[in-house]
Amino acid sequence: MSDVSRRGLLLGGSALGAGVLLAGCTSNETKNDGGQTKVSEGKNAAPGKNVTIGFSAPAADHGWIGAITANAKAQAAKYSDVKLLPVDAGKDAPAQIAAIESLIQQKPDAIVLLPNDGAQLTAVARKAMEAGIVVINLDREFSDPAASFALIKGDNYGMGVSAGHYIGRKLKGRGDAVIAEVAGIDTLQLTKDRSKGFADTLATYGLRVSNRVAADFTVPGGQAVTANLLQAASKIDAIWNHDDDQGVGVLAAIKQAGRKEFFMVGGAGSLDAMDHIAAGDTPLEATVTYPPTMASSAISLARLAVQGKGLDDLVELQVPKLIVLQSETVTRSNVDRYRPLGFKS
Amino acid sequence: MTAGTGPTTNEPTTNGPTTNGPTTNGPTTNGPTTNGPTTNEAVPSGRPGSPAPGLRWVAGEPVKRTLGLVAVLVALLVVGAVTRPDIFGDTSKLWQNELTVLTLASAIGIVTVGMTFVMIGGGIDLSVGALLALASVWCTTVATQSYGVGGVIFSALAVGAGAGFVNGLLISYGRLVPFIATLAMMVAARGLAQKISGSRTQINHVSLINDLASEKILGVPYIVLVFAVVVALGWVLLNRTTFGRRTVAVGGNAEAARLAGINTRRHTVLLYALSGLCCGIAALVVVAQTTSGSNTNGDLYELNAIAAAIIGGTALAGGRGTIVGSLVGVLIFSQIANLFTVNNLPTETQRIVNGAIIVGAVLIQQFRLADLRRRPKLST
C-alpha cells in the first residue's frame, strides 16, 4: 500500500511539474504587422458622424481568414468615429445567418460581411439592407447585387492569370515543359476560377498543366500531395501553388525530396512566402497576391458609405459599387515594397 | 438475476479472447514473470471450452487476415506497375516512391498504433486528431521553441500523454462512455489549439526537428525510423507483455478481467494515456514534415485511424486486433493516395475507393471468419 502511494506521489509530483513547465509554453508573442491598415490623409480622414459597423467572417481556420478578422478590427480601431461590432460567424452558413439576424437586431449603421457561402447568405443580407443597414459584401459574392451596397473582392481568375503570365514568360516556346499545379480545395468555385485563369493564360504561351493535384489549404495537405507529386513527375519545370498557407507544406516536401530543378510561384502573399522570395533560399520565386487587407478597405468603405462620402481621388460622391483588387505579382525585385502587406500565415 | 445471467451468457464469447491467450503462449511466458495468480485464474475459465479444436483456427486467423491485407497491398503495387511502369519498374524510383508512401503514413500510422490499443481494450478515442493538433501547436509556440529541441519534444509528448490521461480518468473514474469523453476532448482540444495559435500556422525554426523529415540515415528518413520503432514497441507491448495480455482481456470481457484480478480502471487510464502519447509522437512527426504546427493538423485522423485499425482486423467491440494488421491498413490507404497522385487522378474518386476498401476488407474478413467457424463444427 505504501508502495502504491509513494508511486502515486511521484507520479503526481512529476505531472504537476510537467504542467507548470507546459503552462509556460503557451505564449505566442507576435509582432504587430504594420502595413495592413491605412487611414488616408485627405479630407476623408476627418472624424465625421459616429458609425457602428457590424462585422462577420467565417471562423478563422487558417492564416488568410485570421488576417481578415484581425485587419478589420485593427482598421476600425484607427478611426475615432467607428465602433466595430464583430460577431462570431460559426462554422457554416446557417450559423452565420443566425449571427447576422442577431446583428440586425442591434441596428448597426453598416455590416461588413464575408459570407461562408455567398448564395446562402444573400437573403439575410437583403433583409439587412431593407432594414436600412449598409451592407458591404466582402470577397465572396452574393447571388443578388441588390443584397449589398458595395462589393469588394479579390480576383481568383486574375490570380491564375498572373501566375500563368509569370510562368509563361519564363518557359515561352518550350511546349514540352512540365508545369505542375497544387490547387486548394477542389470543390470550391474559387479554386476552379484560379485553375481556369491559369490554364487559359498558359494556353496563350502554348503551354499546359501536365500534373495537377489538389490539397486543402492546410500545411499537412500541401506537404502530402506535393510529396506524391514529386514522385509522379521526375522532372518539373515550374509549379504554381494556389495558397501560401499550404505552401509551407509544399516547400517542406520539396526540401525533403531534395529537388531544385524547377521554380515555384505561390498564391495569396503571406509574410513567410515573401521572406523566402527575398532570401532566395527556396524554389519559390514569386507569389501572386490575394490580399486580406481587403478587410481593412471594406471597413473604410463602410464608414465612407454611411457618412455619405466618396473616394478622395474619384469624382463621384459615393464609394464605387464594385471593387475588384488586382492580383499583383510579387518577385524578388519588388518584395520589399509588398512585405508590409504580407500576412502572417 | 439479470446480473447473474449477464456474465454467464457472456462467458462463451469471452472464451474466444481468453483462449487466444494460451495459443499465442501468453500465460506460459507471462505467468511466471508477473502476478501468476491473475493469469492462473484466467486459465481455468478457458479450460472447460476444450481448447484443442478451437485452438487451431484461433491461432491461424489473425495471420490469415493479415496475409489477405498484404495481398491487397501487393495488388495495389501491381496496379502501380501497370499504370506507371516508369516508376514501379525502376528499382531506385520504386524505392524512392515507397519511401514517400512510408513517410506519409508515419504520422497516421503512429496514431493508429495507439488507437489499436484503445480499441482492443474495448474503447474508442475520437480525440486523436485534435490531440495531435494541440500537441503540434503547443510544441511550436514561440515560447516553446525558445527552449530548443528538448522543450519541443517534451511539450509535444507531455501534452499528448496528459490529455490522453485526462480522457482515461473521465472514462474510468468519471464513468463516461468513451465515445462521449473523447468527443468532448476532441472539441475542446481543437478549440484550445485554435486559442493558443490564434488560428495561425506556426513556423518551426528548431532545425533539429525539421531535420527529422529532411535528413536520412542509410537513405531512410528519420521519421520513417521513428514510425518503425513505434510499431515495433507497440508489437512487443501487445504480444509479449502482461500489459498487452491484460488489454486483450479487458476488451474481451471487462467484468471477467476484473474478476480475474486485473485493475481494469487503471488499465483503461493507461490505454488512453498511451494513445495520447502516440498523438504527441505523431505531432512531432507532423511538425518535422510540415516545418510548422497548426490547429488544422490531424484533421479527420480519428476516422482514418479507426478505419485503418478496422480493416487491419481490430474489432470495434474490443478484445481482438493486431499491430501488424493496423500497420498494413495504414499502408494501404497511403499507397492508394500515392497511386492516385502518380496517375494524376482527382481526389474525389480516391475517397470513393477508400470507402469501398473499408467495406470490402471487412466483408472479406467476415466471410472468412464464418467459413472457419463452420469447419470445426463439421469435424466434431
Structural account:
With 345 residues, chain A is α/β, with parallel strands linked by helices. Chain A has eleven helices and twelve strands. The longest helix of chain A is centred in the N-terminal third of the chain and has 22 residues, at 2-23. Chain B is mainly α and 380 residues long. Chain B has one domain: Orthogonal Bundle (ABC transporter involved in vitamin B12 uptake, BtuC), CATH 1.10.3470. Helix content of chain B is 79%, strand content 2%. Chain B has 18 helices and four strands. Chain B has helices at 2-23, 26-33, 36-46, 51-83, 85-88, 91-120, 128-138, 142-145, 148-172, 178-197, 207-214, 222-239, 242-252, 254-259, 264-290, 301-311, 323-342, 347-379; strands at 202-203, 216-217, 220-221, 292-293. In chain B, a hairpin with a 2-residue loop joins strand 2 and strand 3.
Question: What are the main properties of this structure?
Answer:
heterodimer, A: 345 residues, alpha/beta, Rossmann fold, 12 strands, 44% helix, globular, B: 380 residues, mainly alpha, ABC transporter involved in vitamin B12 uptake, BtuC, two-stranded antiparallel sheet, 18 helices
CATH structural fold name of chain B: ABC transporter involved in vitamin B12 uptake, BtuC
> What percent of residues of chain B adopt helix (DSSP H or I)?
over 70%
Which term fits the overall shape of chain A?
globular
CATH superfamily of chain B: ABC transporter involved in vitamin B12 uptake, BtuC
Radius of gyration of chain B: 22 Å
Helix tally of chain A equals 11
- Name the CATH class of the largest domain in chain A: Alpha Beta
CATH architecture identity of the largest domain in chain A:
3-Layer(aba) Sandwich
Structural class of chain A: alpha/beta
